[in-house]
Write a structure and sequence with these properties.
Elements lengths: L24 H13 L6 H15 L4 E6 L10 H22 L3 E6 L12 E6 L2 E6 L13 H4 L4 H22 L23 H23 L5 H5 L3 E6 L3 H6 L1 E4 L2 E6 L4 E4 L9 H7 L5 E5 L5 H11 L8 E5 L6 H12 L5 E4 L6 E3 L5 E3 L1 H18 L3 E7 L34 H22 L1
Parallel strand pairs: 1-2, 1-14, 2-5, 5-8, 8-9, 9-10, 10-11, 11-14
Antiparallel strand pairs: 3-4, 6-7, 12-13
Helix pairs in contact: 1-5, 3-5, 3-13, 10-11, 11-12, 12-13
Bound molecules: erythose-4-phosphate, phosphoenolpyruvate (PEP) and manganese (II) ion (MN).
The site of erythose-4-phosphate has 8 residues, from loops.
Length: 458
């Protein structure tokens, strides 16, 4: 079960891209020793269950909704942002269940999405008239976003602090879900405070209310008829995911478990490898190949057919169902040119294709604010769907950077957020997220379109 020559630390023999510039290796070792001694965040049972659901998504029987912050922060480890994130993911999943007539697998980018790869390792700003250069912000697992030498110093103590905040986040999510917060019979409970205010257009609000009423009526009818699948359709589960970037952290939480072969990364259900760290001979691919978790790999427009074939060969040599996810993030302009050859290269191997329409569509405004346009995000999704449907492959999910809060980070959407409006509430420490309304609107547009395509095929 454990691949040849692999052990949780075997990645150390390979070059690790994006490794934080820690100054005190002994302090890193102390932090990882602490992590290795603590109880894990998730269990192998949950991981195997997710893998079986992903296997069904590969076959076109389910759809995956993966979303959350670009960079989680310990400052936002508070009840409202966490509950609002669950609510928007629940609302979106309801729209998708209704539109696609398929169960949706909900996977948060949360409870550990604290490590960020960066384009530049250093950042220069003018402070009090002087040029100051400091390390970039690499996520709260490494340093802090504030622009002082102390905050930007990679501090190994953040590895343990990040783990504790991931545990608090997950504990709250589990309590909410187990306590009935996410019960599909009562979708009105998930309304965000501002749903009834101006945040949703009247048209979308009416459509959402009609749909949740229909769904709720339908469920009660199915229950009355003793429909067996109702339990399956209404059971709400959340799984966690994050970029498995910081290998000292990830490997400290990778363990053998009683009664199952192999090693599990018990820091999350679904770790993924980022676009910047997927080198075939690099440390991340080496580490991931030995995990029993399902694993994701981000694929950008420069990915070659050969990369795809070798990633499949290295990460899923036995073609295990539900094991390998390719998260394509081409950018609206590149999808049609670059995606078809990757689908062809994967051939008949078992892969779950998910579209991340965020990371290929980032640009900066003239005043230097990072943003994404709603239209480009939608276009990326639509083109990706079209390429899949022409190739006869199933687009099995979507991956968004989003928040349940009313931020102003991406432009466009029904409310017509303009570049001038971005500064009103731009809160992300890294990439721009869809706000509540933009997220729900996208779910509606996607569900309508996929339903139309389904009808067209049927
Ligand atoms: O989330 C993805 C990356 O960490 C992010 O896009 C990097 O942003 P940068 O190009 O500003 O470094
Ligand atoms: C770093 C990320 O994306 P990518 O690796 O696709 O650039 C991310 O999803 O936050
Ligand atoms: Mn991002």
């Amino acid at each position: 079960m454990t691949p040849q020559d692999w052990f949780p630390q075997s990645w150390r023999t390979r070059p690790a891209a994006q490794a934080p510039p820690y100054e005190d290796e002994a302090a890193v070792q102390r932090a990882t020793d602490t992590l290795a001694s603590l109880p894990p965040l998730v269990t192998s049972w949950e991981i195997e269950r997710l893998k079986s659901l992903l296997a069904e998504a590969q076959e076109g029987k389910r759809f995956v909704l993966q979303g959350g912050d670009c960079a989680e922060t310990v400052a936002d480890c508070r009840p409202e942002p966490i509950a609002d994130k669950l609510k928007i993911l629940l609302q979106m999943s309801l729209v998708l269940v209704h539109g696609l007539r398929r169960p949706v697998v909900r996977i948060g980018r949360f409870a550990g999405q604290y490590a960020k790869p960066r384009s530049q390792y250093i950042e220069t700003r003018i402070v009090d008239g002087k040029e100051v250069t400091l390390p970039s912000y690499f996520g709260d697992l490494v340093n802090r976003v504030g622009f002082t030498a102390e905050e930007r110093r990679p501090d190994p103590a953040n590895l343990v602090a990040g783990f504790h905040h991931a545990a608090l986040t997950l504990n709250f999510i589990r309590a909410l879900v187990d306590g009935g917060f996410a019960d599909l019979h009562h979708p009105h409970q998930w309304d965000l405070a501002f749903t009834r205010e101006a945040a949703l257009s009247a048209e979308l609000r009416a459509e959402y209310e009609r749909m949740s009423q229909n769904l709720s009526d339908g469920m009660h009818l199915m229950e009355a008829l003793g429909e067996a699948r109702i339990e399956e359709l209404t059971r709400v589960e959340f799984f966690t995911s994050h970029e498995g970037l910081n290998l000292p952290y990830e490997s400290a939480l990778t363990r053998e478990v009683p009664r199952r072969p192999g090693h599990y990364n018990l820091s999350t259900h679904l770790p993924w490898i980022g676009e910047r760290t997927r080198a075939l001979d690099g440390a991340h691919v080496e580490f991931f190949r030995g995990l029993r978790n399902p694993v994701g790999v981000k694929l950008g427009p420069k990915t070659t057919a050969d990369d795809v074939r070798q990633l499949i060969e290295t990460l899923n040599p036995e073609d295990e169902p539900g094991r390998l996810i390719f998260i394509t993030r081409m950018g609206a302009k590149h999808v049609e040119n670059e995606l078809p050859r990757l689908l062809e290269a994967a051939g008949r191997h078992r892969v779950l294709w998910i579209c991340d329409p965020m990371h290929g569509n980032t640009h900066s405004t003239a005043s230097g604010i990072k943003t994404r346009s709603f239209d480009a995000i939608l276009e990326d999704l639509e083109r990706t769907q079209d390429v899949h449907s022409r190739a006869g492959t199933w687009l099995g999910g979507v991956h968004f950077e989003l928040t349940g809060q009313d931020v102003t980070e991406c432009v466009g959407g029904a409310a017509g957020l303009s570049e001038e409006g971005l500064e009103a509430n731009y809160a992300s420490p890294c990439d721009p997220r869809l706000n509540y309304q933009q997220s729900l609107e996208l779910a509606f547009l996607l569900a309508r379109r996929m339903r139309g395509q389904d009808r067209g095929q049927g």
